Amino acid sequence: MRILLCTGDGGGNVPPTVAVARELLRRGHTVRLLAGPYYPGAPRSKPMETQFSAVGCEVVSPEAGSWAKDAGAFPDLNAIPERLMMSRTMALWMPVAVPWATHTRDQIESFRPDVVLTDVIMPGAGIAAEAGGIPRIVLLTFIANHRLLPGLPVPGRGAPPGDDDLSKQREFVDLACQVSLPHLNGARRSVGLAADDDPWAWEDRADRVIVLSSRAFDYPATAYPPNLVYAGSVRPTLPDDVWISPWEQSDVRPLVAVSGTTTGLSGLWFSVFQASANAVVELGMRAVVTIGPLDPQTLPQNEALMYGSFIPHSSLLPNAVAMVTQCGHGATIAALRHGLPMVCAPVFADQPDIAARVSHHGAGIALTTRSGATEFRDAIQAVVTQPRYREAARALRDKLADEDGVTIAADEIEAVQAGIT
Q: Around Cβ 130, how many Cβ atoms within 10 Å?
């Protein structure tokens, strides 16, 4: 089977997508990656391309100027209320729908794939596959919180389970139409398709929507689109790099993992890095802090603190007792698979909703990036010393233990190619 995989570097979406590509290649399929931006003006991600190339994918990465052609402008995210965080994120990825549609159309013509597999944040790719009559699969590497589902709160609010009132639902849908439909319909026109009046119609017409997350972790909806499949969370892999502790083996101070984004957005978490580092020192603990491209010299310095741009979770977390996290999906699931309680400080996208689910399960404490140093200190102390948080995290660990999202996702992709509904 020839698979055209369409994605860009959104940070946490890359590792699970690479894992799916690796499994498809292991099964003897051919995978070509079309790599591009997930927002207007995003730089080319050579590290992402290297990861896909390393597992055996053919990588096609059109030059940056070709993505700017027909792309919409970078949106004014501050014009969207913070309570609608997922709408802000949709506004970020939608303006590149037209170039994604045209580049994908060109790859379909040259590569002749049997299946197009596209990240949900690249709707233009799915639209091009629809125009070409190619079986298409949408991949979600986070919880299904980018659209309204019955029985669930409005996405992006970090709300507890249950329906929101109709006014909140209307506000979300109206804003989704406003930020999405001009770009989606521009993409549809560019490949000869009629306009839609529903921002999620392109997904609903896909052969599968595969969610690489766990039903056990997510809130349960009362109904799902018939093409949506929860494959389960991704099992951790053995690390390529082994974390080497800078402390003596006899050091028994609790070790806290402070896990920020490894992308250029790490600066949005600067206050959390500061507060967490100071709290760990004050509490007599240790911390390994992943800060992406930030300069560690701008953060608190102490022998109890180790900074790194990136440290594999699978190498670090077996040594930790808790995690401070912005609640990216991958980091959160990694912590839960190790039974670690969390202090959550979400920033954007799906993170407020993931933090709400951690709190709902009792596996951590949800703060914000505006929480003060005392709040971080008290929360870190609580999740490390109060057994109820650790017990809740371990209960989820046991539920996740048998999940193998990559295998199920690959099975579903093969089923689509075989015509199995």
A: 19
Cα atoms in the Cβ-side hemisphere of radius 13 Å centred on 301: 4
Q: Which of 186, 37, 210 is nearest to 117 (CA)?
A: 210
Q: Which tokens belong to 415?
A: 């089923």
Q: What are phi and psi of 84, to 5 degrees?
A: -110, 55
163-219 per-position pLDDT tens digit: 778 999 999 999 999 999 999 999 999 999 999 999 999 999 999 999 999 999 999
Residue 352, token pair as written in the block = 């407020």
C-beta atoms surrounding 362 within 10 Å = 15
CATH 3.40.50.2000 positions along the chain are: 2-235+403-417, 255-400
Calculate the alpha carbon distances from 78 to 91, 151, 406, 410 in Å. Answer: 11, 29, 36, 39
CATH class of 255-400: alpha beta
Considering the segment(s) 2-235+403-417 as one domain, its CATH architecture is 3-Layer(aba) Sandwich (3.40)
Q: Write down the pTM of the prediction.
A: 0.92
- Please say whether the beta carbons of 268 and 369 come within 8 A: yes
Helix (H) or strand (E) holding 19: helix 14-26
Cβ count near 284 (within 10 Å):
9
Strand order in the sheet with 364-366: 305-308, 286-290, 255-259, 322-325, 342-344, 364-366
**Ramachandran assignment for 389, one of left (phi > 0), alpha (psi -120 to 50 degrees), beta (any other):** alpha
* DSSP string for residues in 133-176: T--EEEEESS-S-SS--TTSPPTTS---SSPPPHHHHHHHHHHH
Closest alpha carbon to 115 in 44, 188, 21, 214: 21
